[in-house]
Structures are given as structure tokens and as C-alpha cells.
Design brief:
- By secondary structure, the protein is α/β, with parallel strands linked by helices.
- It folds into 3 domains: about 200 residues; about 90 residues, Beta Barrel (Elongation Factor Tu (Ef-tu), domain 3), CATH 2.40.30.10; about 120 residues, Rossmann fold (3-Layer(aba) Sandwich).
- It is built from 11 helices and 11 strands.
- The strands form 2 sheets. It has a 6-stranded antiparallel β-sheet with strand order 4-3-6-1-2-5. The chain has a 5-stranded parallel β-sheet with strand order 9-8-7-10-11, sandwiched between helices.
- The protein is elongated.
Length: about 450
């Protein structure tokens, strides 16, 4: 109940801050002779700009803000609401072009005033962000290059937009409006200082060292880190952290990975089980022992502690087994004997990472493991193909309302399993998901 109240409170704050610039602009009076359509275009532009500014807050990883939802939900909202903000901002010049024929000349870059050029530059930069984010994979832009470009473009978009508002001046001409607008601008700068200076400084004081690089089956490597001069970090089974290897914490490129060891492990060590999928992950098997590392975390709501139930059903696809393995190891160390069922989907049985550890966990837990390869070898007698409602129903057996369901894996698999659970009558508030595709 407390988490729900906190979540509703933060949603109300988001709505208030989104509308605040609009209130500042249109009260106590607006410039005369502007007309409804022009005022509407300005209103949409102000709301879109404030939503873009709030994007910095959404990605600043404040634990208090992310707590009620989970960081993956916050970042998904960041993606989706950016589309809304883009629509509002794009509507600003489009409405002017359609409804104000006499003002179309200001969009000609050869004769446009400086304030218009600033607005056009901000919109062009915003379009560049949207294109490189939505079609990143099609454009073959690596994750690391995208992170650097995305950060630079985001600052440039908001900076040129604020300069455009200040240059136009119609809606921030009164002294108290200028003061409030400056405060809003300073707040955005403060968020950047927190993300790019304060948090890295805090991480710098708590370095980690690579203690072991352990090869696993299926092009997977387990990276073991130990704290260097501090007590480590407390996390919950199923949570994740952002990881920086070799570089300083001020480096703009970092990668999110789930913890794969038990939250009950003593000695402060943490483990990340990583599959070779991209530029950074391909380098993991070759990281020398002793390499310096930094962590930002833990984050995430993909935990049994925050989703209690008399029993659990887990669905893992590929490397999505890592947070689930962490949960199972943690529950085993706590001698938890609630019934647990794991569906583990892979392309081939030989690619199933951590399979040996799952076999050992079955001796310590009331755990059944259903391995589901898409391409089973000859003579395979178990389940195969894709996990669907019929397969789940065959193994579930008891009343699904007595279980909490955890899903982690590729997006198509997760979508299909959510639909299958809905067909089985499982309430969606009993389903917990963790999506690796945070961008």
C-alpha cells in the first residue's frame, strides 16, 4: 500500500512539473492579439519542453523515484513518454505553419530570425535523437556509441529550446516569470551535475576489482567482482546494476547487468553472468583479473521480497536466466521450501547457461525445471518449441492465483507468455517482468 501511495505521489509530481511552464507562460495574462491556434501551439511547445526536461530526472536513477515502479519500468516510461513529448513539440511549428500563413516566412532559414533558428535547431536535434533511438539496430549503431551520442544530443536539444524560449520572450517577460524560468533551467543543470559529477564521485570512492573471469556454456561468461577497500553492496536476488569496466566512473558508457549470485553471499563479492551479444560483452571473456570496475546499483523490482506469494513460477529465455538464478540461489541459502516451477527456453539444450547450477539447486529447493529448447536434438523427450498456455497449464497444476509469475527474456517471448498467462486467468498484478532492452 505504501509503495502504491508513493507511486501515485510521484505521478502527480510529474504531471504538476509538466504543466508548470505552461501555467507560468499563460498567467496572469498572455500577449495580446495572438489568437487561439497560436496560443495552442505555444502551449503544446511548453508542455513538450517541460516533459523533455523531466527526461533527465527519469534517467538520473533516483532510488526514491524508481522504488515504487522498478528502474526498468521507469526507463520504459522514459522511452514511451519521449514519443508524446516529441508529438507536442512537433505540433508547435506545424500548427503555426497551417493556421498562420502570414508567419510562414519565419521558417525560411535564409531569412528567419535567430529565435526561430534556435527552435528549428532544437527540433532537428530532437528528430536525430528519435531516429537514432528507434532505429538504432537497423542503423547498426553500437550501444556504446549510441549512449555517447544520445547524451550529447539530449543536452543540446533542451539547451537550444530554452534559448529559443528566452529569445522569443513573449511569455517570460515579467520579472517573476523570468525568476521561475531561471529556477527551472537551474534545476535541469542540477540534474546534469548530479548524473555526470556527483554520482561518479560517489562511485569513485567505492571501486571494485575483477577477481575471476569464469567461462560458462553457450558463449557466456561469469564476471566475479570483489570490493576494493569497502564492504560491497547489499542487493536483493533478481536486481541489477550498471557496470563500468576499466574506465573511470566519469565515463559516459556503462552497461546494465543482473546480479547472478545469491544475495546471501558473504564477503561482499558479486557476480554477473554475461552473454556475448554486443561490443562490450564480447570483451568480457578477455578482461584481466585485477581490472578496476565501478557499480551503480542495485536497482529493480524483479524480486520475491517485493512480490511475496505461497509459490513462484519463473520463465527464463536465454540469458534471462541470470536474475532468476540469483533469486533461486538466494531462496536456497534461506532454506525456502515454497513450491517453485521454472520454464527455461533456449534455442538448443547445449546453450542453456547455468544449467549445472540449476541441477544443484533442485536438491536444495522444491523446484521443478522444465527445459524448452526450440531446436531439440534427436531423441529429446521433453518439452520443445515455444512456451504457450497449453504447456504452462500441463505443468502448473494448482490454482494459479496462489503463485507469483516472473518473466525475463527476449521481448517476443515475454509478450507471448504474458498473453498465455492471461488466457489461463492469471491476474496481471501477479506477473512481474524484467526486460533487458532498456533502450
Amino acid at each position: 500500500m505504501r509503495q502504491a501511495v508513493r507511486g501515485a505521489s510521484w505521478a502527480a509530481v510529474y504531471l504538476l512539473v509538466s504543466l508548470l511552464p505552461l501555467v507560468i507562460a499563460l498567467t496572469p495574462s498572455r500577449p495580446p492579439g495572438r489568437g487561439f491556434w497560436l496560443d495552442l501551439s505555444v502551449a503544446l511547445g511548453f508542455v513538450g519542453l517541460s516533459m523533455l526536461g523531466l527526461q533527465f530526472a527519469l534517467t538520473a536513477r533516483f532510488q526514491g523515484v524508481a522504488g515504487p515502479y522498478g528502474m526498468d519500468i521507469v526507463l520504459r516510461f522514459h522511452r514511451q513518454i519521449s514519443m508524446v513529448a516529441f508529438g507536442f513539440i512537433l505540433a508547435h511549428p506545424v500548427i503555426v505553419l497551417v493556421t498562420q500563413p502570414g508567419l510562414r516566412w519565419i521558417f525560411n532559414p535564409l531569412v528567419a530570425p535567430g529565435r526561430t533558428l534556435l527552435g528549428m535547431a532544437s527540433l532537428a536535434l530532437l528528430i536525430a535523437i528519435m531516429v537514432t533511438s528507434v532505429w538504432r539496430l537497423r542503423l547498426r549503431i553500437g550501444y556504446e556509441a549510441w549512449r555517447v551520442t544520445h547524451g550529447i544530443l539530449a543536452v543540446a536539444v533542451v539547451g537550444t529550446a530554452l534559448a529559443h524560449v528566452a529569445a522569443v520572450g513573449y511569455y517570460v517577460s515579467l520579472p517573476w516569470k523570468r525568476v521561475l524560468w531561471v529556477l527551472l533551467s537551474v534545476s535541469l543543470i542540477g540534474l546534469l551535475v548530479w548524473v555526470r559529477l556527483v554520482k561518479p564521485l560517489l562511485q569513485y570512492r567505492r571501486p571494485w576489482r575483477v577477481a575471476e573471469v569464469r567461462p560458462e556454456r553457450g558463449d557466456v561468461t561469469t564476471l566475479v567482482l570483489e570490493p576494493d577497500g569497502h564492504d560491497g553492496v547489499s542487493f536483493l536476488g533478481g536486481q541489477f546494476a550498471w557496470l563500468i569496466i576499466r574506465n573511470s566512473p566519469f565515463h559516459v558508457v556503462e552497461n546494465p547487468f543482473s546480479f547472478s549470485n545469491s544475495a546471501e553471499d558473504r564477503g561482499g563479492r558479486v557476480e554477473f553472468t554475461i552473454k556475448e551479444l554486443g561490443d562490450f560483452t564480447r570483451t568480457v571473456p578477455h578482461i584481466p583479473v585485477g581490472t578496476r570496475a565501478y557499480l551503480d546499483g542495485p536497482y529493480g523490482m524483479f524480486t520475491t521480497e517485493r512480490n511475496e506469494a505461497p509459490g513462484f513460477v519463473f520463465f527464463a529465455g536465454g540469458i534471462g536466466i541470470t536474475p532468476i538464478a540469483s533469486i533461486l540461489k538466494t531462496l536456497a541459502d534461506r532454506r525456502d521450501q515454497r513450491p517453485m516451477l521454472l520454464f527455461y527456453g533456449t534455442t538448443e539444450p547445449g546453450e542453456a547457461a547455468l544449467l549445472e547450477e540449476l541441477d544443484r539447486l533442485r536438491d536444495r529447493l522444491d523446484l521443478r525445471v522444465v527445459q524448452v529448447p526450440q531446436e531439440p536434438p534427436e531423441g529429446w523427450t521433453g518439452e520443445s518449441g515455444f512456451i504457450d498456455a497449453e504447456m504452462i497449464g500441463r505443468h502448473l497444476g494448482d490454482d494459479p492465483s496462489r503463485r507469483t509469475f516472473f518473466i525475463c527474456g527476449p521481448d517476443p517471448m515475454m509478450d507471448a507468455i504474458e498473453e498465455a498467462l492471461e488466457q489461463l486467468g492469471v491476474a496481471m498484478d501477479r506477473v512481474v517482468t524484467e526486460r533487458f532492452n532498456l533502450i
